[in-house]
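Data availability (excerpt). The following record was deposited with the supplementary files.
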Amino acid sequence: ARLLVYSFDWVVNRGCSVVDLLEDISEDLLSTIEQKASGVLSQKKVTQQKIQILNNSKKLAGAEKTVGKRILKFYGSKIPKQGEVGLLDLIYQIVVSCFVIIAFMNARRKDEIRHPVIGLHEKSLQVIDESLQLYQCEFYVEKTMRDYDLFWVTEISKRAIDIMGRIANVAWRWGSFIGGKGPPQGRDRKLF
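Predicted structure:
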């Protein structure tokens, strides 16, 4: 039960401010990586610039307040200092929390959520009536149907799927730069 309560807290109270920060800095970070790839910046300068981009973000203070720790860098250390955390560690925490919420609240198997072929995708969630909090989600039913079907989902599941969609949008943008091809489309645009 503690895992579910912890995951609820991240999805409802903490996740959005950290994802706001990620979205705020992602384009500047991508520009820095492009400069490194073209030979304009050294690795040392890239590291310095990444920290500067993080520290200059208008969303940093809000994320730190929500999380209750200082976000000093992108990667956490093996032995973190008290009250400090890396941004990617927070993103991993949010992804795991979203996975736990979707799995528990919808009785879904691991592959029905995060599989690269049959997992949740960008268009999985359908808003039926926002004012009534009616949502449906297209899940692949692995055990019996072996096909996609629509299921009613809760508000917390919708929030988790929305947060994952925001993280995935940043990842697709980065992936299209690194991979050299456009982002996937339709059911190929996975959330996890």
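Summary of structural features: DSSP finds six helices and five strands in the chain.
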